[in-house]
């Protein structure tokens, strides 16, 4: 532990819902931190799980006085985060995810850089791992952390040095930030981090990505769960933009353009051979890029089926996000409800 961490009390907040497969290993990585446990408060905020999540957490809470289980009857993540922040007693708030494992120096390193950089939020890089050893799970993990899949999202594709950025995974905040700009927006069951971090930057805050801090994140284990997740990311982006008064990033528009291009290009291809040629050329280029990444990944992972699975996974990511974005725009224009069932 460095001197900067002395006497700093940290509250770790972990929203969970039906995480029986992952919550124990997540808790263990916090128990094994090199940060002094007497300076730590660990709040696990449960969305009224129907599996064994609560039972597992209660067992750990009985054995460790700094672990507290809180109820989140609303179930959604922003409600859990806000409840945890209101309950917290720490000088620093660290939000984590029950789907992840964290290195031994995770808390101490985040706190160190938070103060050394005079930052308002710092975070590490997600090392996206397959949920299991199936070819589909491997394809989801690879596509979800590749620049062709998620653009220049540095916390997913990595970075070579500490860099100021627009968002980081989960986040380590000075608690005073929440007093200054408010809590997480509870209208956003997805993308609440993006909106909060953009609001933070708009108020003069600084966010830094620390690439030496690696988080093991387990991706969704099938294509339907992955598609639902990316659809919801896209769905809530227009609402985020409306609340901010401007787009948080430019990369969010590319899946929308992709979906619109597929539809419009298909229609125009019936009107002219010229449009048909352009349309087919773009589709072939897209397919060849996905196929090339699939071949490279198949050789690296010695899994032949990735040649097919990775291009399909890219396509589903882009279609799901882009269609979600389109639906979000329609909901804004028609002033309809954004509430949907959150996917885990």
Structural overview:
This protein is an alpha/beta fold. The chain has a domain at 3-219: Spore Coat Polysaccharide Biosynthesis Protein SpsA, Chain A, CATH 3.90.550.10. Helix content is 50%, strand content 15%. It contains 13 helices and 9 strands. The chain has helices spanning 23-31, 53-63, 77-87, 106-116, 135-143, 147-150, 154-157, 176-181, 192-202, 223-244, 253-268, 273-301, 306-334; strands at 10-16, 40-46, 67-71, 92-95, 100-101, 121-129, 163-164, 172-174, 207-218. Strands 1, 2, 3, 4, 5, 6, 7, 8 and 9 form a 9-stranded mixed sheet that branches. α5 packs across α13 (306-334) and α10 runs parallel beside α13 (306-334). The radius of gyration is 21 Å and the shape is globular. The two termini are 35 Å apart. The model has no long low-confidence stretch (mean pLDDT 90).
């Amino acid at each position: 532990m460095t001197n900067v961490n002395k006497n700093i009390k940290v509250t770790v907040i972990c929203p969970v819902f039906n995480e029986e497969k992952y919550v124990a290993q997540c808790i263990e990585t916090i128990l094994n931190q090199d940060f002094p446990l007497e300076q730590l408060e660990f709040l696990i905020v449960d969305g009224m799980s129907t599996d064994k999540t609560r039972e597992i957490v209660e067992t750990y809470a009985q054995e460790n006085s700094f672990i507290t289980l809180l109820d989140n009857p609303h179930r959604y993540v922003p409600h859990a985060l806000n409840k945890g922040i209101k309950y917290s007693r720490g000088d620093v708030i660290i939000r984590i995810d029950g789907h992840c494992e964290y290195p031994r120096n995770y808390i101490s390193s985040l706190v160190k850089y938070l103060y050394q950089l005079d930052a308002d939020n710092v975070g590490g890089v997600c090392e996206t791992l397959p949920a299991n050893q199936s070819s589909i799970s491997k394809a989801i993990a690879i596509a979800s952390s590749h620049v062709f899949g998620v653009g220049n999202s540095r916390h997913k594709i990595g970075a070579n040095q500490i860099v100021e950025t627009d968002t980081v995974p989960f986040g380590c905040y000075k608690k005073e930030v929440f007093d200054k700009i408010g809590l997480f927006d509870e209208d956003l069951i997805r993308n609440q981090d993006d909106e909060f971090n953009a609001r933070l930057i708009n108020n003069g805050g600084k966010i830094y990505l620390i690439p030496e801090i690696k988080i093991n994140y387990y991706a969704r284990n099938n294509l339907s769960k992955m598609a639902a997740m990316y659809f919801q990311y896209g769905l809530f982006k227009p609402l985020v933009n409306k609340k901010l008064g401007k787009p948080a990033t430019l990369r969010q528009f590319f899946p929308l353009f992709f979906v619109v291009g597929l539809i419009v290009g298909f229609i125009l291809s019936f009107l002219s051979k010229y449009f048909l040629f352009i349309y087919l050329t773009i589709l072939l280029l897209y397919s060849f890029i996905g196929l090339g990444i699939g071949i490279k990944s198949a050789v690296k992972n010695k899994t032949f089926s990735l040649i097919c699975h990775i291009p399909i996974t890219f396509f589903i990511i882009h279609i799901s996000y882009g269609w979600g974005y389109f639906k979000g725009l329609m909901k804004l224009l028609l002033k309809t409800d954004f509430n949907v069932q959150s996917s885990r």
